[in-house]
Protein 1
Amino acid sequence: MPPDFDRRREPGKLAGLGEELRHVSTGLWRSVPPSTRWQMGGVLVLVVLGSAFQALSPLALKAIIDGLGSGPAAVVLPVLAYAGLIGAARVGPSIAGWGYQLSSRRVERALSLQAYARLLDLPHAFFLKHRSGEMARTVSDGVSGSTTILGALLFSALPFLVEVGIAFAVLAASSFPWSITLVLVVFVIGYGIVFEKGIAGQRAAYRDAARDNAEAAGIAHDAFANHEAIKLFARERYVLDHVVSGMARSDAHWSRFARLIGVTGAAQGLIVAAAMGCTLLLAGREVAAGRLTAGDFVLVNAYVLQVMGPVERLGHLIREVTRGLDMAGRLRRLLAEPSESELSPGQASLPPGGALSVQVRQLRFGYDGEREVLRGIDLDIPAGRTLAVVGRSGSGKSTLARLFLRLYAADGGRIALDGVPVEDLDLQALRRAIAIVPPGNRAAA
Ligand SMILES: Nc1ncnc2c1ncn2[C@@H]1O[C@H](COP(=O)(O)OP(=O)(O)OP(=O)(O)O)[C@@H](O)[C@H]1O
Ligand SMILES: [Mg+2]
């Protein structure tokens, strides 16, 4: 059974994507230091400029073609402008890529640190219920998912908006027949519908594959952590069988994912071909009738490509973003688990002066709510005195210690140090005041 934080909440539709994206982006924004935000701002400006230069370059190409008949001097300026725009369109994003590499490392570090701090603050009971290998995997996936989203938004979504926006603006402002723009609008809608259908299935398949894969890796990690028990009971084969079956389930989802990508891509290719054919036929008719110049024909072709290119890349973009969101979403749900500081908000400090008295009254506790392990324990230990609690294995000695440390909350009764109930005490101060050596713990040796 998948752990709680990994449970699937929605069937993989694109609905809710915006909401998730907003959550992840705000989380990212909050977690990075201001200097990194400035760096990201610079990257954003360079990417926008690069896309705008790229989107405006066909206007210079049209001027070159229309000037061809008027002698070599007429094309010098348009050629310089064209070369300048094409050059600037490449230099800007390259420098942006450099800045992005530097800042994305910082984002990764900030996110990992935040996740580790939060996980260390999760209650003991949570760790008992979840595989630590899987939690580690969820953190590394979540961090790389968040930076994938950041990269996709900056280097795909932003250029998409700028390039398609400028292409439609130029087509609308020029004297081209409106039918060309209409074909492009129909193309974008048709492409979008096929894409939406495809991505919904792909997303569900990807998520299933990633979950089963993480589960298989989690089983292996836990076996490493508990190698002694695995060897004592000769369970290596059993562990491997479980890993193999998890991987096989994951593989089946992967093939479904790959098939959906192939089929959706083929359908989209047909839509691209149809739209390209229609727009060029329409523009060619206008040139033949003398209403458009050869330069206009090239311009139409360039802007049709300029809409299609980014729309086609949009598929890759949304795949990246949804994949990133699935990975980041699992981490977000894990980090949303109530932490110890929230469950035990007590702030009282311990009474000063070293030795403390201990009072336990009618203490009751059971791990599962069915079987009580401690029933009505009463203890009074004056400050500076020693008390040994002895009992057979399983009688509840360690459980009593865990309640002192507030690894669990008692079901009834109370524990107090110098009259202050443990739940009112600051958790860190309480634990620092109690020394405990867990059996076989190398860290404490
Ligand atoms: N995390 C847990 N979940 C459910 N039951 C538990 C858990 N930890 C301990 N128990 C059960 O609670 C009871 C008391 O266990 P506890 O570890 O406190 O005994 P103990 O007196 O420390 O034993 P030992 O002398 O072997 O260390 C036992 O029946 C044990 O099986
Ligand atoms: Mg014990």
Protein 2
Amino acid sequence: MPFAEDLPVRNFDQTLRRPTTDYVRFTDQYRVVLRVLNEEARTVWRHYITQANKGKGMSANCPNVRADMSVCPLELSVRGLPKESQERKDKIARRRYITNVLDRTPHTICPACNTNSPQTRSKDCISCGSDLSKADFQPLNKVKIMEGGIRLFNQGLNVIADNQAQDFDGADITEYDIVFTTTGENREKQIAPNPRQPTPLPAEALLDPLTGEKQALYDLDLLAEPSSLEEINLMLQGASKEDIFAARENSRELEEVAN
Ligand SMILES: [Zn+2]
Ligand SMILES: [Zn+2]
């Protein structure tokens, strides 16, 4: 039996009229507590296209799925540039990792503004700034995707997994919570993960509080799927998110017909 079944996600974007992916946000305002839910992270080669979504920027998965492929317009555009060129560094695909996690960051409903606020360093509501130092915080317990690069996954989480396995009789990375402390913002952002002792997840932690059903995990294969050339070209032209997602839906439907 698989560790956890992949089912369709339930988050739904009303404007885009499509399911959306809830990514963990690392910020220096509060510590994030996560339980990894996949035994292995999935590699994704991602481009960040700054002009996409009308200049707000979006990520695309590189369509060069094998090293000998050269269909990706971004890789082609920097082919002649020297390795140290900043333009090249900005445009080539970067190795990223994704995994399902259960966000266990302590949260409480702010009595002043009704926001589900995480426990910030300042003990104030993240939205309205009310003092929440006496509030009763509980783990959020929401399935999300954690994405990170080599520093967080290879240098951070791999080391934690090895050390914990040694210290706790082969404990798997899914058997303990990890606390992530973030310092700095943007390019200076540093994320330091620290594991807690292994403890079984309470059975109810994985349930959806509204429906009582087990929360679905995101399909990592789907999230790692290479972007179509049409999608990437739309992004390079600065197309809106709606147009880009519409192109994605179309190419999936065509694929289903072909299969
Ligand atoms: Zn590429
Ligand atoms: Zn508030």
Protein 3
Amino acid sequence: MAAETISTSPLVLMYHGVPRGGRAQAINGRAFERHVLFLKRNCTLIRPEQYASARGSLRHPAVLLTFDDGFRNLAEVAAPILRRYDVPAVFFVSSRHCTPGKYLWFSYLKMLGACFPGEGVTLNGKLVRLKGTERRTGIQQLTSMLLALAPHPHAMYAAIDAQLPPLESFVSEAVLADECAGMTEDQVRELGQDPLFTIGGHTLDHPYLTRCSAKEAERQISENKTWLERVTRRTCDLFAYPLADFDRNTVEQCRRVRFKQAFGVGRNGVSQFAIRRVGIYSASLTVLGAKLLCRHYLPTQLIAPWKQGYEPALYGAS
Ligand SMILES: [Zn+2]
């Protein structure tokens, strides 16, 4: 059977931030516009409501674009490009960094790795070396130490605030706004009320949900949903698991608060509460084309490198 006649279910692509510049991220505004033009030519770009019924072919797949985390650059850089080419998209927004001056934990670690001028930091009395070639392993070590603090995620955020150098002390205001800040409440409302776009839940603080107590996981999911619905004045039906981390309890909690679909990454499954996505981390159109063609069948380490034991902060895989 010819490739163009084989019917395929929609492919869901997952992007993160799209900064104007991009010190720590591969896909900036110019690269993203090239992606959109490539996708317009080679795919049928669908809305989330079409996910269950849309069909494509191997040569011309149906594709849903999703963007995780709710960075301000998505409202200021990605959304204008999507509007220019009339491309629908879903934005999954974490509440925490929508408060000015607050940042998600992995944004902190990414910038510490990319911009910190010092040779080390101290956490709970332990020196973590960040000098030269030690930086990569140092950031991995610090990430593991922070994620091990209980209760998750409060103890992790408290330790960053109390013991580690503030982001503002080593990252310029312009870079913070372009790469780390979350959308303002007005931007969340504006995107939520644009018929081209859909806002979905992504928790309050972007924790690993399976590391949270049951009560905390429920609070992370439901209070984020309530906030998004208040701000957008729309029902919030979609959810993306931060870091694609979920289990049976998490799925149950999402059902209980009446999400209709939830998205993971890679080989999570195919149910409406474990919809697979393919993460896009490279500006290269060749890589994008290969991911469209290979769908979910590329080796896991290319789709979701942190599943191989790396931490997400180094790769922007969140
Ligand atoms: Zn995320």
